Structures are given as C-alpha cells and as structure tokens.
Amino acid sequence: MPQLGLLYLLVFLPMNMLSGNNTPLESMPPWLATIMEASPSTHFVSLAQAILYRGAGFAVIWLQFVIVGLIGGLFLGLALLRFRGSRVRLPSAGAHKVAAVISRRNAASHSADQLVGATALTVVTGFSDAVSACGGVWRYSRQPTAVAAWRVSMSSNIILAGAAELRRRMSNGDQPAREMRCWELRLRGHWSDLRIGATTVWRDGPTWLFSLPVDLRGIAPGDVAVQLYAEPLNGGQPFVDELSTTPSNPGIYIGSAPASRPAEEYTVRIIPRHTGAAVPAELPLILWRK
C-alpha cells in the first residue's frame, strides 16, 4: 500500500490535472497536449462532460468509449502478462529457498507491476464511472414521475433551468446534443489559431471607440463572441460589451465603452458562444488580447 500511495502521487494526480478537467488542453504546450491524448483520463473527461453538460447519448461519445476501452484493455493485458511472468517454476527445495527466489523476482518487477496495475485500475474505474453516469442521464430522461418529484423537492431556479436545457438537448434524437458536440470540437480544433490584432482607440465625447482586426482562422463568427471587458469597480458588476463587425469589413470588430474609465482598463477577449451553453463551465476556453 505505501508503494501504491507513492504511485498515486506520481501517476494519478498528473493524469487528473492534465486531463482537461481543471484547465483546457488548448492552454497547454502543444507537445504536452499531444502526450495527454494517449491518457485515458483525457478521453474520460471529454465523454463525461459531453454526457453531464450536454446530455449527449452513446451515438455522440462512442469514440471516447472505444478509446478508453482499448487503453484499459492494453494496460490490463500488460498487467496480466507481468503477473504470469512473475510466477516461477522451481525444483524441489526447502521452503526458505522458494521464498528467497520469489522475493528476488518480485523485488525486480514490483515497481513496474504497480505502475501498470495502477494505470489499468484507473482506466477500468473511469470506464465504469462513465457507463454509470451515462446510464444515469438516460434513466433520468425516461422517468417523468421521478423528475416531477425531484422538481417539487428541489425548486431552485438554476436546477429547473438546467433540467429544461437538458430536455431540450435530448430532444429530436439527441440532435441538439450532437450539434453542441460538433461545436465544441470545432472550437477546440482551431482555438489555438485565433489571432487578435492591434487595437485602435479614439475618444468621441463621453465614449471610447475601439476597432481591431480579428482572425478567426476557420471558426464561424457565430460560434464565438468578441467582447470588450473591464474589471468591476467598487464591488459592482464587470463591464462586458460585445463587439460587432460591418458588412464591408467582416474581419474588423468595433465597439464602444464609457470614457469615465481610462482606455487602458478595457481589454478585448474571445469566448465560446452557443445557444444554451453555459460558458465557461461547459467549455473553458478564453483568449485575451495581450
């Protein structure tokens, strides 16, 4: 058990922290994001978010299930091979000689066995949790009586709104959930290519006017929102205003802000945008103008 605890610190924690659960893969160095594509926790987080946030069915997240299953089968097979290889055939000898030989063999392969076995356990446990979560969402959608009782006991506006959004996403054969999954994949695939150009600012009476070029690099303008942001003052609300384009210059975004604050306090950012999507909870992507 002490060895398993040490392996937990060296294997489980990095896999969880770099899986995209705490921070998106797009914020990592490209070489690290590529390595994490081979981790089962990355694909488990992807399918779990698709199920819990977007109500996606099996037809949407089957690929992640297959990848997690293949990785789990691979490490489980390696663990079984090493376990079988650790068994030793010995001639008739005293019990102490047998114990000495087995002890030496186990000491040589103990660390590798623990690493492979721990990884296999992580994959199998994650796969089981994903199946349970997916089944829970499907059971939830097929039990209107239980849902009604749950609504009576949990009369929170947030929960009711979330339940309504879940029903919408699971309607029409999960078509809304499929569309949101495609939207997520489009943004994740091109997010690192987004570019925000230099900002031009001038004053027009009590208003600051902002103009800047934005290169979306293959992302549809409707999939993102280009905003002007400023930190809140005196405990109030932050200033957020969406920039817009003109038909003559679709790549130039313009907007305005009150001149009661210095222009340097306003920052341009790009965030995901989709009807019904809770950003940043569902898709924690954001690009700030540096």
How would you portray this structure in words?
The protein has 290 residues and is an alpha+beta fold. The protein has 2 domains: 2-188, no CATH class; 194-288, Immunoglobulin-like. Helices cover 54% and strands 17% of the residues. It is built from 8 helices and 9 strands. The chain has helices spanning 2-17, 30-36, 40-54, 58-85, 95-141, 144-153, 157-169, 171-190, and strands at 195-196, 200-204, 207-215, 224-230, 239-242, 244-246, 249-258, 267-272, 287-288. Strands 1, 2, 3, 6 and 7 form a 5-stranded antiparallel sheet that branches. Strands 5-4-8-9 form a 4-stranded antiparallel sheet, with no helix packed on it. Strand 4 and strand 5 form a beta hairpin. It is elongated. The protein starts with a helix and ends with a strand. The relative contact order is 0.10. Mean pLDDT is 76; it is low at 90-95 and 108-155.
